[in-house]
Amino acid sequence: MHCPFCRHGDSRVVDSRTSDDGSSIRRRRQCPQCNRRFTTVETASLSVVKRSGATEPFSREKVINGVRKACQGRPVSEDDLALLAQRVEETIRSSGSAELDAYEIGLTILGPLRELDEVAYLRFASVYQAFSSLEDFEAAITVLRADHEAARAAATGGDPDAGTSGADEASSGATGPSPTA
């Protein structure tokens, strides 16, 4: 590391600390030539390989912008989008790979987006999973419904009828005394 003051080709690390989010290391250095101190910030770089073959640095902002389009008109806040982008970056970094396809990043977004908003998930998935027909949408919706049923069954101890209200029974054709006006 060159000293920014005297351009000496070496420096000594005096102190190292990780940043708040753990994605970078802040180092305090001292030049042995002029004895001045300076700070460096080190981050592991993540590169995205685009369809065209071009490579660019990973950007949380690009994740947020892409997901924001899918979330238009949905009850999703900017804070929700920022947390989603952070989760995506953490997942990508934990993979250990320094270069990822843009397509892989899109697929990585799907899980957290599904938890955030299912309509936005379907919009986003239609692009990244290349939905080409109504059957593709129907299949994705069927999977979402099955997951809802499984979650409801797990929450009610496996009884599929537990948790249904009288209104559900009335709408499903069950008979019973009708309310009087």
UniProtKB/TrEMBL annotation:
InterPro entries recorded: ATP-cone_dom, NrdR-like_N, RNR_NrdR-like
Cofactors that this protein relies on: Zn(2+)
unnamed zinc-finger residues: 3-34
GO molecular function, one term: zinc ion binding
PROSITE patterns: ATP_CONE (PS51161)
Biased composition (Polar residues): 172-181
KW Transcription (keyword) present: yes
GO BP, one annotated term: negative regulation of DNA-templated transcription
One Pfam family cited in the UniProt record for this chain: ATP-cone
Ranges of compositional bias, category Low complexity: 152-168
Disordered, as annotated region: 151-181
Keywords recorded for this protein, A-Z: ATP-binding, DNA-binding, Metal-binding, Nucleotide-binding, Repressor, Transcription, Transcription regulation, Zinc, Zinc-finger
Domain ATP-cone positions: 46-136
Co-factor remark: Binds 1 zinc ion.
Role this protein plays: Negatively regulates transcription of bacterial ribonucleotide reductase nrd genes and operons by binding to NrdR-boxes.
NCBIfam families: transcriptional regulator NrdR
Family: Belongs to the NrdR family.
Protein known as: Transcriptional repressor NrdR
Organism: Cellulomonas cellasea DSM 20118
